[in-house]
Amino acid sequence: MLSAGLINGQILNMEDYRIHNDSLGWSGKAGIDLYLTKNTKTLTKISGLWHVQHKSKKELILLLAKYSLLKSDAQDLIDQSVLHLRYNHFFTQNLIGEWFIQGQKNNISGIFFRGLSGLGLRLKLSKNFEKNKIYFGTAPMFEYEQTTCNKIIKLWRWSNYVSFTFSPNKLFSLVSTTYYQPVFVHFKDFRISSQNSLMFKMTEHLSFKTSFIYNFDNKPVSGIPKEQYNLTSGALYQF
């Protein structure tokens, strides 16, 4: 069984869902988790993930569907979903064109529905490194949003991200992705999302991993805090 987990923040980190390998053709994964407990209250959790990718010498198509629901009795504590389609065209090994379309729901952030569509470029900046990679992406995107307060917002944002993987040896690895998305005509209205994972190998099969996700929205939905973050740490056993 594969856990899809919770969808953290308002910005989907697509770097987490790229399958980095040299194989051409289809690849992907799918899974669903169901959790039910009852004592003084009934707690239900459902999470699902479907992720498929097709890669050729010149193109890559990625489709992601993700859903998370956490309910206590009749109250929805968390209700999040996202559907994302992305197309990449490789002009060169280091210059890639990107087009994407996305729909999402996130009750924690006050989002009843948000639709995105954008077109831009992705640059690979680390030409000579296999384990240490740096990418930069930029794209104008149109955003349509209906909040849980029934407010409708239509605007253009400028989506930018930097992603890097630093792995100097077999014991240590750091993966980081940061997004910056201002409104084109009003740069004081912006979002920042940063996801960082640190893994340290303690034995051949046992590793320690800590992840920190930080989200900031300068103009959030009414009643929603500007900052949201999530810190997780734990041991990972691989065999």
Question: Which helices and strands appear, and what pairs or packs with what?
Answer:
Elements: E1 25-38, E2 42-55, E3 59-72, E4 75-90, E5 95-106, E6 111-124, E7 133-147, E8 152-166, E9 172-183, E10 186-201, E11 206-217, E12 227-237
Antiparallel strand pairs: 1-2, 2-3, 3-4, 4-5, 5-6, 6-7, 7-8, 8-9, 9-10, 10-11, 11-12
Largest sheet: 12 strands, antiparallel
- Into which percentage range does the β-strand content fall? over 45%
Number of discrete helical segments? 0
Determine the mean pLDDT: 87
How many domains? The number is: 1
Class from secondary-structure proportions: mainly beta
Shape: globular
Uncertain spans = 1-7
The top level CATH class name: Mainly Beta
**H-E order:** EEEEEEEEEEEE
Strand order of the largest sheet: 1-2-3-4-5-6-7-8-9-10-11-12
CATH topology: Porin
What features would you highlight for this structure?
single chain, 239 residues, mainly beta, Porin, twelve-stranded antiparallel β-sheet, 69% strand, disordered N terminus
